[in-house]
Each structure stands twice: as structure tokens, then as C-alpha cells.
Specification:
The complex is a heterodimer. Chain A is mainly α. Chain A folds into two domains: 34 residues; 36 residues, no CATH class. Chain A contains three helices and no strands. Chain A starts with 8 loop residues before the first helix and ends in a 17-residue tail after the last helix. By secondary structure, chain B is mainly β. Chain B has one domain: Porin (Beta Barrel). Chain B is globular, with a radius of gyration of 24 Å. The two termini of chain B are 12 Å apart. The chains are: A mainly alpha, B mainly beta.
Chain lengths: 92, 406
Amino acid sequence: MYYAVDNNNMNVNRNMHKILIVALFLAVSGCGTVRNMTVKEEVKPWEKDILATDTMQFPRDPMQTFIDDHIYFSKEASTGGSGVGGGGCGCN
Amino acid sequence: MKSIRNKLSLATCSLLTTGNAAAEAIENAWEVDSSYLYYSEEDRVTVNKLVGTAKGFVSPKDTASIKVVFDSMSGATPTGAVKSTNLTFTGASGGSGITPTGESGALSDFDDTRVGVALDWQHEHTRTLSVNYNGAFSVENDWRSFSLAATANKENSSRSTKWTLGIAGTYDQIFRVNGNNTPEPLSRVADQRFLGEGERATTDLIAGVTRVINRRTVAQLNLAFGIANGYMTDPYKVFSIVDAQGIEWDQYFEGRPDSRMRWSITANLNHMTFPGNNGIHLSYRYYSDDWDIQSHTLDYAHRFIFGNADYLEPRVRLYTQTKAEFYQNAFFSPNDGTAPVLPEFLSADYRLDDMSSATAGLTYGVRFGSDADLRTRLEYIYQSFDNSEFDTNKAIVFNISYGKRF
């Protein structure tokens, strides 16, 4: 390797990510939402009204997810994780 | 799309629903969705994309869908070369088959158009087993891609758990737009040695489980594995041979391994809060491959749902990756008349560098009655690269989508 650029961006960005992740979890846990998310219940068919909404689907907006996958596939080294098929591209 | 049985159960649920939860009533037979994307990087690439989908019942147990995609991409893209150079670039080819921008060959202009079509067929084999068959192809100036996939979904009798198993095969043909060829890997650009079109075959597998946790929470875990063989190199990318001062004195075409094995684990969570009835959407993916790249992706969105089912959804995506083992920004070799002794593989493609990225955005969704919706999204993407010649990339995303059920 000829030279390695040490611009300190890596350390700054990783610290920013850690702060953001902690802030997200604090915001969520502060209102007891974490408990509501993790309590296991048997759900009867007539109780699946909320689960049937678009908001609760994986993905909740297939069009937006498709476009996001294409953006990040073109700009990052990692791909996939949520489905298979659909072909590839040589996007720069 | 849902079976008749599900439509009836959903209809019953809608009669019992109170509050702001927008439960689906009887499902309509056909759905269309359309989207326009404007993606623009600062001083670099611009993409205009149009997507149209149509999906509908063709029988009580079968749904079919078609997706058409049109992409127009243009702008300046990093070649992999450094900015400081003793080389001169003349003519349209500039020695690398692409048009250099400015005084160095570090950026090049490109122009590409892509059209893709995907067909989907979902068949409900039994009450709890459905299989989705997918075929897709896309064509652009320098790439042809064909894929086939099959994904099976099996639910338990209470429909609280769904297992997914999918397999896909993709065949790509890759070539430079000028000449329909590929450069000999790790050859001098000035020697202009070219081979035929590149070919690549990829097999992807996915296994997942989706589980209802409670009335307001559903979680998903996916394990994905992929293996690709064939031409993995970018036929346009080069790297610089630099002297002790970092000045480029020669250029070589990059060369990557002829295989890549990757795997990832993704966890997704959707939750509707109580009593606010807003959506929490959390996703985490860990990725690793045998090019020594590992990445973490964390995506969080909070959907504020209003009384009329309109919504405002802020979103944050954080991403970090390690560099490929054969990535280098440039290769040092003294300019003394001797040829550089290169490693087996080398690429200066910035997308393979150590990188961190953050995306912040906002989506606004508007419902028109029970059958149509309009979603508008604005996002900002910031990428920071540790070693590349261009250490940041900033982009804005504007996306507008309209969907209707008939």
C-alpha cells in the first residue's frame, strides 16, 4: 500500500453513530414502548386488524424499499438481506 | 393480495376496529403503483428513475404482477485514479475508454440508460403454503442481466408464524460501452489490451421467519447467502501507479477475484404504539463476505399516523463498512523504468473503501379515500470514505409515488 489517508473521519463518524443509536433507544424505551413490543401474546384472528395494515407489513412500502435497495446497491459494497431475485445492474 | 378467507377475516376485524388503526376492509382486485426518483450527488452522478408496477388476481389462488423500470444515469464518476498526475489525457478515450473530466483522469463523464422488466406469479398451493415465481431481465449500455427466482412461504395454522425459503439465479453480461469488451485485468491502460465480454453467474438463497409477537408487534429474521462466479471486476475502473510524492506516473486497469461469497443476517421489527397508534420500524443487517468486507446497517423510521390515515415518517439510516482486502487508493512504485510488481488483485473503486454513511429523510403519505395514496420523500445521504481520493459523497433523494387499487 502506498499511503493510508488518516483523516479522522472514521472515528468521528463511528462516535456519531453510537450517540444516535443510544438516543434512539432512550427515546423508545422512555415511554414503555420496549415492554409493549416484547410482551408475547396469542393473537386471535379477529384481533389482527392492526397487523393487517400496510404499516405493519414487511416491507411496509415495497416501492420505496425497491428504490432504496437500488440506491444503496449502487453506492455501497454490501447487498441483499431481504429477498432474492430481480436481477442486477452496472450502476456507477 | 389476500385470499377470500383473509378478506372475510379482515372484514370482520374492520367492524370491530376502534381508534386510528386503518384496518384494510375488502381487498381490491388490482393494484398499480408508480414512482419517480430524482437522485443527485454533489458534482457527480444524477439519476432519474421511473418505476411502474401492476398486480392483480388472475384466479382465486393466483396473483400476477409486472414491474417496469427505466433509469437514466449521467454525470461524473471516480475512475479510481488519483488527482495528482503527470499523465496527459487526450481525445475522447483518454486511454481508459472513458472521458476524463478536468485536468486529471480522477473523474470521468458517463451516460447510461437502463430498462428492466420483472414478472411475478404467486400461487397459493394450500391454505398455508404459497410460492412466488419471479423472472427479470434488464438491459443497459454496458450490462445485461437475467434472473429467475422462487420463494416459498409457509404459515402455521394460526398464521402467527411464517417461514420463507427463496432461491435465485442471476446471469450477467458485463462489457465496456466502447468496444463491447473488457480490459485485461491489471494491465497497463496505455497498452489497451482487451478481452471479450465478462460473464457472471450468481446464486442467492434466503431463509427467514416472520413472527407475530402481539397484537401490535411483528418481527422478522432473515438469513441470506450468495455466491457469485465469473467477471467481478469493473471494466472502467483503473488505479494509479504513484511515486514517493504521490504523483501518478502510470495507470493500470483494476482486477478483482473471480468469485465472491457473501452472507447476511437481517432483523426487522414493526410495532404500532399504544395509545398513539404510530408506527415504529426498526431494521438491522450484518453483512460479511470473503473479500473481507463487513458492514452494519441500522434503519429506524417512525410513522406518525394522523386521523385520516395520512402520515409523516422521519427516517434515519446508519451504515458502516470495512474495505475489501484488495482495495488500495493507489499503488506505489518508483518511476525508475522498472515495471511495478503488482499484487494478484487490486481495486481503487471508492465503493470498496472503509466507509461510513448516514441518511436522514422524511416521507409524507396522503390517502385519497380507501383506494389511492400519494407518498413524497426527501432524503439526504452523506458518505465518508477513509482512503479514497474523494473523501465524501453527498446526495439528495427526491421520490414521489402514487398508488391506486381497483
